[in-house]
Every structure is written in C-alpha cells, then in structure tokens.
Write a structure and sequence with these properties.
The protein has helices spanning about 5-40, 40-65, 70-105. The chain is an all-alpha fold. It has one domain. Helix 1 (about 5-40) packs antiparallel against helix 2 and helix 2 (about 40-65) runs antiparallel to helix 3. The termini are far apart.
Length: about 110
C-alpha cells in the first residue's frame, strides 16, 4: 500500500520545519556561546541568523495547520524558550562562577 501524495507532502513539510527548528536551535546556541567565550561579536550576530531560522521553523509548523492545539502550544512554548535559552544559560554560568570565586576569596 502506497502512502497518498497528500500524506507524503505533509510529512515532508513537517520534517523540513522540524529539522530546521532543531538544527538551528543547536547552531544558534553554539554560535552564541562561542561568540561570548571568544568575545567575537560576529559570531553572536551570526547566531541570530540561526535564531531567525528557528522562528521560521516553528512558524512554519504552526501555520501549516497540521498540528492540533496541544502540539501547537507546545511548539510555541518550546520556540519561545529556545530563543532565550542561550542568554539565560550564559547568565547562569557567569553568576555561578561569580559566586564560586566570591566564596573562594572568602
């Protein structure tokens, strides 16, 4: 039994948006961290290109109409969190190290 053209098209579309979302989130976080560690503003700016691709992936899934309400809300939440995760993580690491050094110095 062959899958219908419509099913194949839906799966292809959702795989494209899903892969774009996951891949771009990882590259966004990696480039942002690398830019902060090295102090290279160009890496941080490049990371924002992948943040935009992340938004495109989530937006494509939401606007496709193929997700029910639960999955739409989940993807909206995940996409929003992923946009701020690199900055929140960087803040947490700096704060942890700041407190650790303060404790060591007594």
């Amino acid at each position: 039994m062959q899958p219908s053209h419509e099913v194949t098209q839906v799966l292809g579309t959702m795989i494209l948006y899903g892969f774009t979302f996951v891949f771009s989130a990882g590259v966004y976080a990696s480039l942002y961290a690398a830019g902060m560690i090295t102090g290279k503003r160009s890496l941080i700016l490049l990371s924002y290109v992948f943040a935009a691709l992340l938004v495109w992936g989530v937006g494509g899934m939401l606007l496709s109409g193929h997700l029910d309400r639960f999955w739409s809300l989940l993807m909206l939440f995940a996409g929003t969190v992923y946009l701020f995760l690199p900055q929140m993580t960087w803040w947490a690491v700096r704060e942890f190290h700041r407190r650790h050094i303060a404790v060591e110095r007594g």
